Amino acid sequence: MDELEYALANIRGHPFENFAMAYLREQGYDVHESGSSGRDGGWDAQIELGDRNGIAHASVQGTWRQKLRSDAEKVEDLEEDRGEHYDLFVFVTNQDVTGRQELDMEDEIRDEYGWKLRVHHREEILGELRQNSQDLAEDFFDADLQKDQDHIDEIEEILEKQLDDIQTRESYASDLIEGPAVVLHVIPNGVLSKNTTRSGSIPEPSVLFERLTSYGESKGKYTISYGSGGSGSEHHSYAVLENDGLYESASVDAFHEKHNDLWLQGFIQDGVGIGLDASVVLAARRTMEDLTKMGFSGTAFAWISLLDAGEVKLVTPDALGNSLHRSPKTIDTDRYTTEYATLQIGDKHVIEGLEPVLDELWREFGADESPNIEDGQWARGTFKSNGETILQEGDR
Predict the structure, then answer these.
(1) Is 249 helix (H, G, I), strand (E, B) or coil?
(2) CA angle, 32 then 33 then 38, to 5°
(3) pTM of the model
(4) How far is residue 353's CA from residue 7's CA, in Å, rounded to a whole number?
(5) CA terminus-to-terminus distance, the chain
(6) CA 168, 170, 176 angle in degrees (round to 5)?
(7) Using one digit for the tens of pLDDT, what is the confidence trace for 263-288?
(8) What's the confidence (pLDDT) of residue 327?
(9) 116: nearest Cα among 99, 80, 91
(10) Three-state SS for 188?
(11) Is residue 245 within a helix (H) or strand (E), and if so which, with residue range?
(12) In this predicted structure, which of 41-50, 139-148, 325-334, 349-358 has the lowest mean pLDDT?
């Protein structure tokens, strides 16, 4: 995540209220602020857009749908108290909102109140700030967008080099067996700094899709861990953590064969596997802890990649939580990398940051979004290791 994304994700209180008002005016609304607000960044104003009039609310609550519904009830009461008729309800949030979620809420508000709902959410706001409203980005978030983009481009060049090495089985991937791979990269925002604070030792990194790692080796400027599959010069998975903070884990063991096809498990199921989303969440959470131990702070970028997995299919859950080995959509490419997620080093709450990129992957396989995460919280299944629950419903 660049500085703009981090600033928008973490803005609170009156600064968000002031930004929401300025942003709506930039989008063409006439805004008449009421002056009422709440500690959660809640705020409302009377608005007009063309021949429509109504009320705008803004909030930073993670449970944005719940907040939107609550605010809609307040607007209905206001409409009745004032004897006015509204036909527009605007909700500004710094949370991630999928297209399906937005459409569902539009239908719900129209059916319940007869209003046109317009949601301005994180992805849309970031796009507008970068393309059309750079002055707002500088005024409210102190973000130099050109500088930020140059920095991201340099980090993405590092990512592409790492992915090249995995596909050609070079560098850290030299002993990885052939086959499609799931890869997680976490790269600190300060990886290019020459003054990065580092600890004297590098922790053994967590390996994707592994309950336990087989062993770790310290190699001076990095530590590498291997999964339980394979031995000697042949490994099914590995993870590496460098002294500059770069984390990389690749797993060929993530896939299983059924009905003559290769499948990637999509959710936690006893006796089957941990699943894509849970594996990514646990590895990223552990990496945030490891980076803190090494003396890193600030933000980190995270990407999920599928390599040589163009024909792989995703196992999805049915209504009872059982595996469905149907014939869903495949990604049809030998390299797919998500947009980046932004995580806060030292914060174990990584699910909200990872939700957009995990939703993105599920959409590539034909789903609307991940069924495992809702409103920044874990929503499906429990995972235990050595008798200890390490992932459960409600985790953030």
Answers:
(1) strand
(2) 160
(3) 0.67
(4) 13
(5) 18
(6) 85
(7) 998 887 776 678 999 999 999 999 99
(8) 61
(9) 91
(10) strand
(11) none
(12) 139-148
Distance of CA 308 to the CA centre of its chain: 23
Host H or E run for residue 300: strand 299-307
pLDDT tens-digit readout, 141-196: 877 666 566 778 889 999 999 999 999 999 999 999 999 999 999 998 878 765 44
Domains and CATH numbers, the chain: 3-143 (3.40.1350), 153-391 (no CATH)
What is the Cβ-side half-sphere exposure of residue 363, based on CA atoms within 13 angstroms? Answer: 13
Of 277, 290, 350, 292, residue with least CA distance to 1: 350
**DSSP class of residue 176?**
B
Q: Is 14 exposed, middle or buried (0-12, 13-18, 19+ CB in 10 A)?
A: exposed
- Kindly tell me if the per-residue pLDDT of 234 is higher than 50: yes
CA 118 to chain centre: 23
Give the C-alpha separation, 367 to 267, whole Å: 13
Q: How far is the C-alpha of 312 from the C-alpha of 256, rounded, in Å?
A: 10
Q: Which residues contact 299 (CB under 8 A, 6 or more apart)?
A: 1, 3, 6, 188, 189, 342, 343, 344, 345
Give the number of other Cβ atoms within 10 Å of residue 387's Cβ. 5
Q: 74-83, 89-98, 293-302: which range is least confident on average?
A: 293-302
Q: What is the token pair recorded at 214?
A: 């087989």
Please count the other Cβ atoms lying within 10 Å of the Cβ belonging to residue 118.
21
Identity of residue 172:
Y
Across-strand partners of 373?
A: 378
**Phi and psi at residue 261, to the nearest 5°:** -120, 160
Q: Which two structure tokens, joined as six digits, stand for 257?
A: 């064969």
Residue showing tokens 């131990």: 293
